[in-house]
Write a structure and sequence with these properties.
mainly beta; about 0% helix; about 55% strand; three-stranded antiparallel beta sheet
């Protein structure tokens, strides 16, 4: 459901995005976050909704801060009516 974050040492930025597929064609709320699990932090988060069964979020960027070494992309999606949800985490 999501993609592994990447790090560009030339720009000092992490990039990440989330992809959602195989959902019913009803309203689905999504959230795509970059986290630093060792620090217990959410570094960046974006959200929205879609209703066509799938969605590719744009690529998001986050400037690396001192001390952050491990980051994870967390993709979360849930039907607006609360009937089902899914979450996936992939780390760099």
């Amino acid at each position: 459901m999501d993609s592994k974050p990447t790090y560009d040492s030339a720009t000092g930025t992490f990039s990440y995005k989330c992809t959602y597929a195989s959902w019913a064609s009803v309203r689905v709320n999504w959230q795509c976050s970059l986290t630093a699990p060792a620090l217990g932090l959410t570094l960046s988060s974006h959200s929205g909704s879609f209703s066509n069964g799938s969605y590719n979020a744009p690529r998001f960027y986050y400037t690396k801060q001192y001390g952050i070494t491990t980051v994870c992309t967390v993709a979360y999606a849930a039907y607006a009516d609360g009937s089902d949800w899914d979450s996936d985490t992939t780390c760099l």
